[in-house]
Design a protein that fits this description.
InterPro entries: DUF2063
Protein name: DNA-binding domain-containing protein
Keywords: DNA-binding
Helix content: 40-55%
Shape: elongated
Distance between the termini: 46 Å
Structural class: mainly alpha
Number of helices: 10
Pfam families: DUF2063 (PF09836)
CATH architecture of the largest domain: Alpha-Beta Complex
Largest sheet: 3 strands, antiparallel
GO molecular function: DNA binding
């Protein structure tokens, strides 16, 4: 079986439907083609399944059949460049924005950004929470590596929430949203839609402003409570 180190440009071309690489031989050329076709189909199936696991809400929104066809097109245009499959798929949100068959669903790219960010948050580095009694409002805070703030052109956070298991998919929000994404200590990854002032508070902290300065923007209690509750304010790296 081919190993990750074997994924050279000619192998990538063959996986996309091109001729069988010259180093793959058999007694009869047709046999080499048949065997490689099996491998090609297995790889394509594995990548489609990996994409569906990474973007389950996109799959629900467009339907399983359409998602499979769309995934095949994405795989052909953006095959993995690394044997680490976790690193593959970051181009999917941009791909959706340019994929003509979903032009009438302009929010898909934003929803995909949320799903990609959730994967990044899940695999983010660990960091030790700062005990609340050591919180210093005059110094910039070190926030957890999983914390992300996404500025969205559509109500994508609400769409994502409405399409979770057990939800009916009905959307009650409109307009642009800002999504906060973070990983809890139990490794559950959360998504929340923030009000503008809440988003400004978090953005200020992420930008290096002190807590004292950020509190001038809005009431800090709701967001500060969330940050402390879920261990998102961290101590120094050497603590």
């Amino acid at each position: 079986m081919l190993q990750p180190s074997d994924i050279t440009p000619d192998v990538r071309a063959a996986l996309a439907g091109g001729p069988v690489p010259g180093f793959i031989t058999a007694r009869h050329p047709a046999e080499a083609e048949r065997r490689f076709a099996v491998y090609r189909n297995n790889i394509a199936h594995s990548l489609r399944e990996a994409l569906a696991r990474r973007f389950p809400v996109i799959r629900r929104l467009v339907g399983a059949g359409f998602f499979g066809a769309m995934a095949a097109e994405f795989i052909a245009r953006h095959p993995p460049r690394s044997p680490v499959l976790q690193e593959w798929g970051g181009d999917f949100p941009h791909f959706l924005g340019l994929f003509a068959p979903v032009a009438t669903l302009p929010y898909l790219g934003d929803v995909a950004r949320i799903e990609w960010a959730r994967g990044q948050a899940y695999h983010a580095a660990d960091a030790r929470p700062l005990p609340p009694e050591r919180l210093d409002g005059s110094e910039p805070l070190r926030l957890h590596p999983s914390l992300q703030l996404l500025l969205l052109n559509h109500p994508a956070a609400s769409i994502w929430q409405a399409n979770q298991p057990g939800r009916d998919g009905r959307l009650r929000a409109t307009g642009a949203e800002t999504a906060l994404i973070w990983r809890r200590p139990d490794f559950e990854v959360r998504v929340a839609s923030l009000a503008p002032l809440e988003a400004g508070f978090i953005a200020a902290l992420m930008g290096g402003r002190t807590l004292e300065t950020a509190t001038l923007l809005t009431d800090p209690v709701p967001m500060l409570t969330l940050l402390l509750r879920d261990g998102l304010i961290c101590g120094a790296e050497d603590e």
